[in-house]
Amino acid sequence: MSGGAKDAAAHAFELTEIDHVAIAVRDLDAAVAWYERTLGATVAHRERIESDGVEEALLEVADSYVQLLTPTREDSPVAKYLDRKGEGIHHVGYRVTDCAAALASMKAAGATTIDEAPRPGSRGTTVAFVHPKSAFGTLIELVQE
Description:
Layout: H1 3-10, E1 15-24, H2 28-39, E2 43-49, E3 54-61, E4 64-71, H3 77-85, E5 88-96, H4 99-108, E6 119-120, E7 126-130, E8 139-144
Parallel strand pairs: 1-4, 5-8
Antiparallel strand pairs: 1-5, 2-3, 3-4, 6-7, 7-8
């Protein structure tokens, strides 16, 4: 099987659009105020996700979001990220129609995943993460609405 045919066989899902770009921040209220003041952005959704140890504010940009994330506890992945790298882009979320199928397809294609199975995300979504070592240094979130 040629490389292209093998890639097509392993790729059994479609990215429908960019769901969000996540930015890790130390002060969520200050970041929201900055986006409101400088870009005219407004918060479409705000939620505390206890399982991930974060609070988020989603700023709507057309059909996608800028997700501002701040840790709510010191052992959260976002707190560890801020300690290592400082504020900035944390991950990119891609919308998919079937998170389980997309995750399985990525595993079959050789990607290293953080989540073994999809799990609940914010605003009622289903999500799964792919490790940045598999994606050229970018943490990827698969998001099913």
